[in-house]
Amino acid sequence: MAEWQTTSFLEHVIQYRQRPIGKLYLERRTEAPLNHLLPTLASDYSNQCYQEPHVFTSIALTLLVGIISDKNSSIKTLRGFENSVLKEICSYLKIPNYLEHVKLTLPGECAGSFRNEVFYQREGTDYVSFAYCGFVNFPPPEDRNVNMMPFILGNESSLPEYLRCYNHCIKQCPIDSTEIGKVCYLTVNESMVKSQTTQRRKGLHIEELDLFPSEISTGFTPGNIPYWGEGVFTPDKFEGGLYFASNVSATNMVYNALIDKNVPGITDKHGNCEHLRKFLGPGTKLEAGQLVWITDRTPHEAREQQEDKYCQFFQVVTSRVTHWNDQYYTPNPLVPFPENVTISDENKLS
Questions:
Q1: How far is CA 159 from the centre of its chain?
Q2: Does a structural domain hold residue 27?
Q3: Is 319 exposed, middle or buried (0-12, 13-18, 19+ CB in 10 A)?
Q4: What is the pLDDT of residues 157-196, one digit of tens each?
Q5: pTM
Q6: 177 and 62 belong to one structural domain
Q7: How many Å apart are CA 274 and CA 285, to the nearest integer?
Q8: Res. 149: pLDDT tops 50
């Protein structure tokens, strides 16, 4: 199996940043292997990057070698059952179908070059997964820790007093004015983080809802799909979404991709999507204090720190939240929940 052409993808992004979009489009129409103008589906792009017709060919060959040829292999006892083993394993390998629901997107700073009706009719709003929003200065740390705590955007008095020092960070988020007066959600983590560990959630994921058992069994109606910030990008404003920053460089990484979270099985119930990593291209490490906007479908991850260091993390999730879990999130006695928010006390580990 040919490896993912990371260099080609990165060169593609760099050229978008450095050269006129129109000129690049004309060149890329006929230049292989990048025949598609971003944004494009990962399934279309991966067809240009893999020589084998099936991306799991090498996995199958490795299994067969272990079963048939390698006397020291721990799976040699399965000799004679090769067909059954491969059929069972391949029943779980659905990535080729999932790639049709993963879109590789434009760098946010390039999106302003597309101001024509043809582009918007073709792509709608799904063409940017994250965008830079400047830098924030963190207040002096005091071991503050809250997770998805509700507050009223634009009303500093709705924040507990010990968190009002973060109000200037909230103000630096270019949240759409329609959110003012609505309940949004604040996360602040301040802690010492050891080398080779992460302060936040490790592993590639999107902000999928942690669906509760009763909802998993009954499902959701098409008109009542759950969401956790949503997020729509236009060249003029951000609608919904999430904003976050860390005071330590290279501890968070985001990707120019959007994953359709409404496709069953494309992630687990916590949003994990590690199996899609090789199809997303290179991620972007954030600098210290760098504020970004993402959607709840944008793949991102916390990265291990290189040394022991005290870390501060700040995040605002806009009002488009349908579920809240009081086992893991922080209540705010100053702010009642909106009527559309479902509150659960289910233990996700039970």
A1: 27
A2: no
A3: buried
A4: 999 999 999 999 999 999 999 999 999 999 999 999 999 9
A5: 0.74
A6: no
A7: 17
A8: yes
For residue 123, count CB atoms less than 10 angstroms from its CB and return exposed for 0-12, middle for 13-18, buried for 19 or more.
middle
Q: Is 131 exposed, middle or buried (0-12, 13-18, 19+ CB in 10 A)?
A: buried
153 and 271 together in one domain: yes
Q: Which two tokens stand for residue 105?
A: 């997107």
Tokens of 142: 């005091």
How far apart CA 40 and CA 42 sit, in angstroms, is 6
Rounded to whole angstroms, the Cα distance separating 72 from 67 reads 10
Secondary structure of residue 210 in the 3-state scheme? coil
Neighbours of 136 (CB within 10 A): 24
Residues 84, 180 share a domain: no
The two structure tokens encoding residue 239: 């609608």
Query: Higher pLDDT residue, 109 or 142?
Result: 142
* Overall number of domains in the chain: 2
The residue that leads in pLDDT, 348 or 350, is 348
Whole-number pLDDT of residue 307: 92
User: 197-256 pLDDT, tens per residue?
Assistant: 999 988 899 986 544 333 433 344 444 566 788 898 877 788 999 999 999 999 999 999
Q: Give me 162's structure tokens.
A: 């010990």
Distance separating alpha carbons of residues 190 and 185, to the nearest angstrom = 17
- DSSP symbol at 246: E
Q: How far, in Å, CA of 291 to CA of 305, rounded?
A: 19
> Residue 137 belongs to what domain range?
130-344
* Rounded (10°) angle between helices 82-90 and 57-64: 150
pLDDT digits (tens, 9 = 90+) for 121-143: 556 667 889 999 999 999 999 99
Dist. CA 184–CA 261, nearest whole Å: 21
Residues 100, 101, 102: CA angle, nearest 5 degrees: 95
